[in-house]
Structure formats: C-alpha cells, structure tokens
Amino acid sequence: MIKVEKLSYGYPQKDLYKEVSFTIENDMHCALIGTNGTGKSTLIDLLMHEEDYLYDGKVEIDGADRIGYVSQYSAQAQKEDMTVFQYISQEFVKLEKKIADYCKEMETAEDLETVFERYQEALDEFNAIDGDFYESNIKKQLKIANLQKLEEQSLTSLSAGEFKLVQIIKEMVQSPGLLIMDEPDVYLDFAHLNALRNLINAHKGTLIVITHNRYLLNHCFNKILQLENTDIQEFDGTYIEYNYELLATKIDLKEAEAKEQEEIDRQVKVLEKARMKATMIDSATLGRAVHARQTIVDRLKARKTKAPFVDIKQPEIHFKLGEVAEAEYILALTDYSVAFDEQLLEQVNFEMKPTEHVAIVGDNGTGKTTLLRDIFENKNEAVMISEDAKIQMFSQFRETAYGDKTLVKVFEENGFEKEQDAIEYLKKYGFEEDTLYQKVKELSGGEKDLFQLALISLEEANLLLLDEPTGHLDVYAQIALEEAIAEYKGAVLMVSHDFYTVANCVDYVLFVENNTVRRMSPRKFRQMIYANHFDKDYLILEQEKKELEIRIRKMLQKNEFVQARELMESLEGIIGKMKTVL
C-alpha cells in the first residue's frame, strides 16, 4: 500500500504540491493524470527515490520490496547485441549464476555460515520474482502482447513500439510490488496500444501509470489521481465514472454559482441605492449602512464557488493562416520511395489540395516520419511543393536552439517587443506564471510540445506538417489541438497514432500498408480500426457519450440546470452500457 500524507514539495521558482494526501491500496491499477507541467513525473520519482528529496509530509510504501519503472523515453539498452528473450531474462540469469557460484563456493568455504547466508539471500530474491518459472512467464507475457514471434529476434531489429513493450514485459515478469510507468503509450501504433492495454489488465500487482491516452484511460484503471494547481484529487473507480462525477459536480457548482451571482447582483443594486441616498443626505448612519452593505457584497464575491478539478481551462491553440495557395495542389508525391536497411515506402503517389487535412497512419517503423521530413526539407525529386507554400513543421525529434533560454526570452526574440505581451500569449497556451521564466530544457515533455506549437502559431503558414503532435499533450491540450486543426483553413499533413485525433479532424487518411499508402475516408478508417483493434459497440457508445456531454455543457452555458440533469440520466445509462463491453 502507498500512503502519502500532507506532502509539500517544489522548486525555488515553482510549488508543485501543497499538503497533498492520497492512498493506493495493493493491486490497484492507478492512472496519474493532470495538465502538462503539474509535476506528475516528479511525484513518481519522489515515490521511488524519496531520500533524494527534501519534502514536507509523510510517504509510506508497504509491501513493495522492489519497485519497477518504465520511462517515457527509450533506453540505450536497445543497442545491445542480444535477443528479446535474453534481454527480458537478464535479472533471472544473473541471479541463477550468483546462486550457482555460492553453491560452488560452499564446497570449499572456511566461513560456511557467511556464504550460506549470501546464498539464501540470493535464493530468496530469486524465489520472490518467481524465478523457477521465469521462462514460461516470459513466453506468457510475450503472448499476451502478441509478440511471441520476436522471442529470438535481436533487440536492434525492433521498432520503437516493439521495444517499449519489451521493456514493459521485462519489468512485469520480475513481479515488482509496485510498477510505475511514465507515459508508456507515447508513439505506440494501434496494435501496440492494444498490446499495452492487455499487459496492464493482465498484471497482478499495484500499478501507477502516467498517461494522457484516452483509450487506455477508459480501459485500464480502477483508481484515478488527478494533480492540478498543487493539489491532488483521488477517485476510486474508472476514468469514465470519474468524468461523469466531475460533470455532475460541475452542474451543482454552476447552479450554486448562478444563485450566488443572483444574490450578489441583488446586493449590488441595494448598495447602489444606498450610495445614491448617502450622496444626497449627509448622514453618518447612512454611511455606516453603505459600508456594511459593501462588506456583504465583498464577502459574497470572496466565497464564490471554485473548483480546480472541475473546470480546467483548455489551452487556446490557433494557427495563423498565410495566403491559401492558388495552385490546385499544394503538395504532390510521385513514385516516392525510402529505404534504410530494408524498403520502407515504395512508389508512393498522392496529391493534397490547399485546404485538405490529411493523416498518415501506419505501424511503427514504416517510414512516416521520414516522409514528413523529406517534404519539409524539399530535397527529394519525388516531392513537388507549390511555390505558394509556406510550411511550418512540428517534429517529435526536433532539436531546439532555445534550451538554455527562458520561455519569455524566446518569445521576446520571436516578435514580442514587450515582455508582458509575450507573457499573455504564453498564458493562452496554458503556461503558468511560474513556468514562464523556466529554461526550455527544464520543461516537461508536454510543455515542450506546447512550446513548439506556440512557436509554430506565431508564423503564417498554409501547410502544416505535424509529426505525432499529441504524443505528450494532456487530454485538454489534445482536444484544443484537434479544434485548432479543424478550424485551420490551410493544408495539414499529420502523422498520428491517436485514434481520436485522426477521427475528429481530417478529411481523409493515408494508410500505410505493403510499403505504400492507401487513401481511405475517415468513416472507412474508423470501421477498419473497429474491426482490427477496438470494440465497435464501445466506440459507438463513446460517440453517443461525447455528443451528450457536449449538449450538457451547452445547457450549462445557458444555466439550464434542469435540462442538464435530465440528460445526465441518459448519460448514466450509456456509461452503464459501456462498462459491460469494457
């Protein structure tokens, strides 16, 4: 069990947590969520290495002699010359050798008792990770992830998505009392995302997973921890149930706020009348009455309902549009090919109109990022770009020259003469005051992505190239980006593995298969994904759920609380059906 009481911690320039408390019971699968830059990665590092942190409060972790960890970044281990099975079984083989060495040493040891103690420690450690059955356990985990064919393959031959899953399996088979994973879903294609879901759901043990992936959130967790504004909220239940409770709470708070505002408005009118009388009649009694009434109004305003977890502000992402290209096509590929050790893409042909939004979708390692980079660099003869094209690119691997500069300084150098103007612009993208003076290299992964999007949005463009733009973004920023793409009137070519982003804001999909691309409508794409990866009934219900939630939010904007509550009953029915197919 994990028990945190009144934890406070921060940096000199930023508080992360102020007296936060939460509990995670044994064998719970917990999702740690929150907007970008709230300190989620720091929190899990503190749980693993509390001795490295000067914090206030109390942290207790019981029943977890070993804590497993999977980083959001791929380790250098993939460069090692070994098979997948050898890599996963490293710890077991190491302990087997240690046990065998102690057995041999005991044959001639003078201090037999000491050697035997070491032998027993190694044996206990081996038994604690179910060492006698490690070979069958590894094979079982590979089968759950549908990776059994990779058992004897070299690590270096794996795609990034395959290696990420292999890293996860390596940690899981060692039976950690607590397994922590930091955005394990980043850049996984649809097949590998489903494999990750299966691994998480089959894991017997306590899990803490940082993720912004809406599919995983809906399918994998029975406890939610949301970190916002230096505070934490815990919820025992699924993410779908959590969102329902947030919406129900929002209705209550909005209704209370509306009543409070009515009372404030009434008191303000009384105050104005009292002031008018006081100006007409010089009376100490009236003056005191006006002061008392002002105090009432101030108190009413001060106690107005606030809800840091219910009404989180969505970033305002907008892309400036340059002149729309006059040519019939802004981009055309003719017999485009790319190969490294093997052929990735061959004889790719397609054309994009100046206002089309297109997603390139396919398995990891099929050449999608290379294709986007070749378009951006425009040095490949197979790539034809309109002379009118003004290109901006978001890259998942983009190196920045701004690492040692603060956010405010970067934006002052990119068009803002006044520091306050740069600050106001960055705030629209969700950056808090205490983040604006951090160095770019100190930002979280999601904050770096928002920083890059904010920079891109300063420039007028009519062709946006976006390579996995939602990879590290929180859910609120993902939705904001989808809306920004949908309203953008220029051309967008986007590589993405995020089903929701692809389904919500493109005109058609270029699906990579058999070393080339096949054009399909969003409807056909959804049908294909339903059939191959997801549950069709669930996704249909989720669409109904989304439409109902939009209607409820619109009613809240109009203060139509009775109607909103009636729709909440329908929403509850849909959620009940969704739970039966999860």
List keywords for this structure.
single chain, alpha/beta, Rossmann fold, 19 helices, globular, 4 domains, 582 residues
Percentage beta strand: 15-25%
Which fold name is given in CATH as the topology of the largest domain? Answer: Rossmann fold
Number of helices: 19
Sheet with the most strands: spatial strand order: 5-6-7-3-8-9
Distance between the termini: 26 Å
Label the overall shape.
globular
Quaternary status:
single chain
Parts with pLDDT < 50 across at least 5 consecutive residues: none
User: Tell me about the biggest sheet?
Assistant: 6 strands, mixed
Strand tally, please? 18
Q: Specify the CATH class of the largest domain.
A: Alpha Beta
Helix content: 40-55%
Structural class: alpha/beta
Q: How many domains in all?
A: 4
What do these coordinates show?
- The protein is α/β, with parallel strands linked by helices and 582 residues long.
- It has four domains: 2-229, P-loop containing nucleotide triphosphate hydrolases (Rossmann fold, 3-Layer(aba) Sandwich), CATH 3.40.50; 244-302; 331-534, 3-Layer(aba) Sandwich (Rossmann fold); 540-581.
- It has 19 helices and 18 strands.
- A six-stranded mixed sheet has the order 5-6-7-3-8-9, sandwiched between helices.
- A hairpin with a 2-residue loop joins strand 17 (508-513) and strand 18.
- Helix 3 (90-106) runs antiparallel to helix 4, helix 6 packs parallel to helix 7 and helix 9 (239-280) packs antiparallel against helix 19.
- The longest helix is centred in the middle third of the chain and has 42 residues, at 239-280.
- The chain is globular, with a radius of gyration of 28 Å.
- The chain starts with a strand and ends with a helix.
